[in-house]
Amino acid sequence: MEHGGNLGKLGNSLRVRIFYHDKCFDGASSAALFARFYRERIRGDVDFTFSGLLHRAGALFDEEDFDGDENAIVDFKYSSSPKITWWFDHHQSAFLSPEDAAHFEQDQSNRKFYDPDFKSCTSFIAMIAQQRFGFDPAPVADLVHWTDIIDGALYPDAKTAVEMQAPAMKLTMVIESAPDQKFVPNLIPLLAEKPLAQILEEPFVAPLLPPLLKRHEISMEILKQRTECKDGTIFFDITDHDLEGYNKFVPYYLHPESIYSVGLSKSSFRVKVSVGSNPWAPEEPVVNLAKICERYGGGGHARVGAISFNVDQHAAAIKASQEIVAELRGAVRQSHK
Ligand SMILES: [Mn+2]
Predict the structure, then answer these.
(1) What separation in Å is there between the alpha carbon of 15 and the centre of ligand 1?
(2) H helices of the chain, where?
(3) Residue 258 C-alpha to ligand 1 middle, in angstroms?
(4) pTM attached to this predicted model
(5) How far is the CA of 169 from the centre of ligand 1 (A)?
(6) According to the model, what pLDDT value does residue 10 have?
(7) What's the gap in Å between 32 CA and the centre of ligand 1?
(8) Same-domain status, 232 and 194
(9) 248 CA from centroid of ligand 1 (Å)
(10) Which domain holds residue 160?
(11) In this structure, are 191 and 216 located in the same domain?
(12) Mean pLDDT for each 10-residue chunk of the chain (337 residues)?
């Protein structure tokens, strides 16, 4: 894999490599907040390198990449490698195996933290850094506020979620469709230091926005044609369009009566089955979507999950999506009996 970011001066500074959930506002913000916390409360003369991690079919980690003096993973799955010295996550599916979970349970370092009840990993890091390490979260309060809203889907309604008004939402869109592997590592150092509205005006960020807003409009048109809602469950397949990173709330905006959604999308390296629930659903979603996704090798949270397939596994992805749609529609029908 390629590493973005700056190694900076190599002198006597400690080299800390931070692995984060790539193409995700909470992932990038977690990396930013962790770096600020580390510099302020652990060690000042430190060079950070930021490396994005993505869920994909097959191995998630390459041990050879853990080459910092310290290596941290934030907002992403646990690794039992002794080279990983810090870990923060809030995903329900945080462990690749029972052995990894046991390894974490036995950890005595006080540098590995997990709480699936947190809306965002960024707010989780802020809380731990404050309570255990005396970090002052006040300067990053706005970032923490918005990661909770965006990762926790705490928008008041679907309209707000698809309108893209707030700077944090625009940054989310930019991060999710990052043009190259260096973009997010270049953005991360700004996230915990500058106001979000100001980051949008950076010369390497500003030009990206208009085409993305246009693409957002087009994706809404495509989803309008493709989404089908039956028994409270939306299904759509947009694998024939390059639309990975579409706003995941559009299906609920188009079908306010829905409870669940299952969508197929495609990028250069994966076919993704996205399984979600409508945050503004007329009735509470009750099915644990992380558990469903785990059955197919994916994961996530109780209310939203995903499964990644290799691009040559397209048929398996279609089959999985159809089985999940049938299961969710069955659950909704059952609850209406
Ligand atoms: Mn997260």
Answers:
(1) 25
(2) 25-41, 98-105, 121-133, 141-151, 158-163, 167-176, 183-191, 196-200, 209-226, 250-254, 289-295, 314-335
(3) 24
(4) 0.84
(5) 15
(6) 55
(7) 13
(8) no
(9) 15
(10) 14-204
(11) no
(12) 47 91 96 98 97 84 95 97 98 94 97 97 98 98 97 91 94 91 96 98 97 94 97 97 86 97 93 96 95 95 94 97 98 93
